[in-house]
Records
---
Amino acid sequence: MTKALEGVRILDFTHVQSGPTCTQLLAWFGADVIKVEKTGEGDATRGQLRDIQDADSLYFTMLNHNKRSITLDTKKPSGKQVLETLIKECDVMVENFAPGALDRMGFTWERIQELNPKMIVASVKGFGPGPYEDCKVYENVAQCTGGAASTTGFDDGPPMVTGAQIGDSGTGLHLALGIVTALYQREKTGRGQKVLAAMQDAVLNLCRVKLRDQQRLERTGVMEEYPQFSDGKAFGEAVPRAGNASGGGQPGWVLRCKGWETDPNAYIYFIAQAPVWGAICKVIGREEWITDPDYATPRARLPRLKSIFATIEEWTMTKTKFEAMDILNEFDIPCGPILSMKEIAEEPSLRETGTIVEVDHPVRGKYLTVGNPIKLSDSPTDVTRSPLLGEHTDEVLAQLGYSAEAIAALREERVI
Ligand code: CAO
């Protein structure tokens, strides 16, 4: 069976997380991804957070499946020549170096266009044009500057970052969409183009509902679904941290379940969706709330949300999170157990769909990874292990037309 991006060749000049997540997705869709790494050292993540001495870290292996790796010193003249050949042969260059690094290497947009006018040059940067465009950025900086941190956490605590890598992997996803869109447009124009996904922009895109709330707050001075409202607290000028409140029109909260005293994840997310209010009241034994004017309508419930959730919690605490999930789903009440990473890793249905995959690696042995979360019916994903450093240098250079002698000379010069 053919793959969706078969025939597309990617010059993968990415490192750390944001760029590699993007090129990994493209590889899963069938692109030939050639990862160009620094001679001798490679992507810094190969050695970061190691759990097995001398084996590529899980950080690296889990972000670089289905790629080929070549080492190349792109600061030496003969290394630049190899890069030029790669630029001529590839469809897309993806990079996430610090701002200006590619220019300093001598590969400006103009130069790349000269070499290959069809080349799509896709970049992750911390910020778009503006006061911070020259800054280096890591995940949590993006979460803080993109609006996620100021709106995450509890009202009486500091701003919080989330465990979801929305700055890195979130931006990689945005970039991947930009790349396939540019490839599609190139079909009609024959031209390449620049694609930029700034981490601040990607995080802000994911925080869209909070900019919605900023404007609601400015217009009305109050947001009734926020916990501050039922707590009787004043709103300030900016969107406050909403704890575990739902970001949508149906109120929700995290509630304790049986075992919460010892299990940090014995909780369930409970959504008091309006259409199933009657069912909720019946399940928790509060049928009088169905007709009581203080509880019967969503609007009447808003100032009482805190005490309503406390009452629902009295019920959830008598059930395990999985028992509560089963009972509530019988009545179509939207809810979700708080799953630990251990529970997710062991979940058979995620293995069956390929969302969690066991991969074998020649140095580290078997490990678990997250497979392709996007399923195409006509382009299935086979997850293959990440490459060793420079594993494909000779193979790729030979494909580019370099003779065995020329390859040996480059190795002698320590360019590869
Ligand atoms: N051969 C020779 N030199 C190479 C090379 C190669 N194959 N690959 C990279 N280099 C050079 C670069 O040209 C650069 O040199 P100069 O500083 O002389 O221009 C140098 O290696 C270091 O690149 P860098 O500045 O990108 O790396 P860093 O570790 O200092 O910074 C990071 C890392 C992530 C902060 C920075 O790359 C960045 O801000 N990237 C954009 C935002 C981003 O993607 N952040 C997400 C990171 S994931 O959390």
---
Amino acid sequence: MALFSNRHIERIVILTGAGVSAESGLATFRDADGLWEQHDPMTIATPEAFARDPELVYRFYNARRNQLPEVQPNAAHKALARLQQDFTGNVFLVTQNVDDLHERGGSRQVCHMHGELASMLCQSCAAVMPAVADYDSASHCPRCDSRGKLRPDIVWFGEMPYHMETIELQLADCDLFVAVGTSGVVYPAAGFVRQATMHGAMTVEVNKEVSEVTGCFHQQRQGPATVEVTALVQELLAD
Ligand code: APR
């Protein structure tokens, strides 16, 4: 339990977005050099795009997956893992990110609501399996042996995010909701701050700049995630 802004905090929900991994060298989506500045998301990240041009989609996700070993978790990932480990109350970490930097930063519980680059999903038998190579339309499902049915295990635009029931239960029960490095453009994640507020939680945003939902938060901490998350975790553990 911690005293934070004169409130007793026992249950914390942390939502992260691409900004938490930016200082590790992974592009965000909507910053000036972001992925959606270089690619039209409607040609890459929808089920229709995959049906239309699977090779384009495979190349995009193969390249993102192959970049992961070249980057390292940063101080923000590590601070959140420390909070999960040392906080005497409950810390639930939900991320929109598909990278594995929270886990490599030491987090044992990470809820990937938009899926993971580290796994593939078979559209024929629904098996989910570790991604072990580059994939294309000739790839076979190791379970059902169908060909060309494996897709990146990523939640695309127009699809329902994973684990929504668990996430909503956590939001309904938390004392503190923190959003780190997310632009507040994509729902349902962008609506979590309102849900948490509705249930009486204190809400804090960490972002290097103003987001689409900054005005919904009780507190905004503006600056790089590595600096602001480390300071916030220190405060929460100080008690
Ligand atoms: N420290 C803190 N915040 C940062 C940093 C940093 N070093 N770098 C960038 N940011 C902030 C930006 O200001 C921006 O508000 O991170 C946010 C990144 O926003 P987006 O690129 O829109 O990423 P995100 O919010 O995670 O996107 C949500 O959209 O494209 C879909 O499914 C995809 O999960 C993704 C979802």
